[in-house]
Write a structure and sequence with these properties.
Largest sheet: none
CATH architecture: Up-down Bundle
CATH class: Mainly Alpha
Structural class: mainly alpha
Radius of gyration: 20 Å
Length: 423
């Protein structure tokens, strides 16, 4: 029998960690209305904590990549999961809005930022020499799987046993994921006397860079901001975050409930998006190995923009239009990650790409943070989300054309083994 390469076990453990992190990040959609009812807080107040969470989640990205270089992926995963479990358990005892901002916004935001796709890309770059596009697409789909497995259960728990039970469930899941990482993740193939998957004897492992995580992160940022491509990728990813995590991920369930759609059904819609996202993102990784990433991004953002422009009408009808939106949007949810990563790697090289992409991802989460807060304010002041959905749709159409302006860099790696770097 052919021995299974250790890279696949490391990948599986990383998938579990990212899956649980994604489940935790998707929890606010289930919590908004219960918190509103129990404490009488406005949707804008609750959204402010979610906004801080999303911002810190993004700001941790570039430093996470540097932290992985200094203390290793296994310790980073274990630390992140322990922090999340503690913060979630403490959050079950909140009584005031500032406590929600501190625990959910601050600690949970930092913990999920340490267990984000920047971490996943660092693992892929270390362990895989071949099939990186496909592997990164599958790993990125952990977000979809987290939604699929947890959201309906969290909604049902929140409805039947209260929102504290939902937080307790994801806290336990975080402890399990941290244990899996400690048991199965190893720092590099060289540490166990292996080559990365797909590498031959001519492969030379990269040398670790000297410097603190902060200096590595800021140095990569300094090199990145001098490039037009950095600003184009950061700008399109800003819009990506605003239209996904910040808007749909946070406010779709409350928006559905505003139109008389039960919470469990609305959570089921997001979970169904997760099913289609699993396929869409994996296929996107496969396409990224073969097609022009700029044209892929143009297609993804244009289709997402059109779907968001149609969403307000679909919510009013509450019929088949919502089913079409669920499938359509799900296929496109985070399909943007593999081509964005590929373009970042082409532009900045294998060494800088994970950290530079961390900064691009920070822009993603700044967009998500502003959209989460902005949509909450729009709902509080106008009574519905229509303006938020239409604005986000128009921004996605703009991002489609911005993506075409990214420089088409000459290929630095063979077609079968693109080097993605860090969702």
């Amino acid at each position: 029998m052919t021995r299974i390469h250790r890279a696949w076990f490391v990948l599986a453990a990383t998938f579990v960690v990212l899956l649980v992190s994604a489940a935790i990040r998707s929890t606010p959609g289930v919590l908004i209305v219960p918190l509103e009812h129990e404490f009488g807080w406005s949707r804008a107040t609750i959204s402010s904590a979610i906004s801080v969470n999303l911002l810190l989640y993004g700001l941790m990205g570039p430093f996470c990549a540097a932290i992985v270089e200094r203390i290793g992926a296994r310790r980073t995963m274990a630390l992140a999961m322990a922090l999340l479990a503690a913060a979630l358990l403490l959050a079950t005892q909140i009584k005031e809005p500032w406590q929600l901002v501190l625990l959910w916004g601050g600690l949970v935001g930092a913990g999920t930022g340490m267990a984000a796709m920047v971490l996943g890309t660092s693992v892929v770059n270390r362990w895989f020499h071949a099939r990186r596009g496909v592997v990164l697409g599958a790993l990125t789909a952990s977000t979809a799987t987290g939604q699929l497995l947890f959201l309906p259960l969290l909604a049902k728990l929140s409805e039947e046993s209260g929102w504290r039970s939902a937080l307790g469930l994801v806290a336990v899941a975080a402890l399990v994921a941290g244990t899996v990482a400690a048991l199965f993740v190893r720092e590099s193939p060289a540490a166990i006397g292996q080559l990365p998957y797909g590498a031959d004897d001519s492969y030379t492992p990269p040398k670790p860079r000297a410097g603190s995580p902060a200096s590595l992160a800021l140095g990569a940022l300094g090199r990145g901001v001098r490039s037009k491509d950095f600003w184009l990728l950061a700008g399109t990813f800003f819009i990506c975050g605003a239209s996904t995590n910040g808007l749909i991920g946070t406010h779709l369930i409350p928006a559905c409930m505003d139109h008389g759609i039960p919470e469990v059904r609305a959570a089921g819609m997001l979970a169904t998006m997760g099913i289609f996202d699993l396929f869409g993102t994996t296929i996107s990784g496969w396409l990224t190995d073969r097609w022009d990433s700029r044209k892929l991004l143009f297609t993804y953002y244009a289709l997402r923009g059109l779907s968001l422009l149609l969403l307000p009408h679909a919510l009013v009808e509450a019929g088949s239009g919502l089913n079409v939106f669920t499938v359509f949007y799900g296929l496109d949810w985070i399909a943007t990650v593999p081509p964005t990563v590929k373009l970042a790697t082409d532009a900045f090289g294998k060494e800088d790409a994970p950290i530079v992409f961390g900064w691009v991802f920070t822009a993603h989460q700044i967009g998500a943070s502003l959209a989460a807060l902005g949509a909450g304010v729009v709902r509080t002041q106008s009574g519905d989300y229509r303006a938020a959905f239409l604005t986000s749709g128009a921004l996605c159409l703009m991002a489609a054309f911005l993506a075409l302006q990214v420089t088409r860099a000459p290929r630095k790696f063979e077609v079968a083994t693109p080097v993605p770097a860090a969702g």
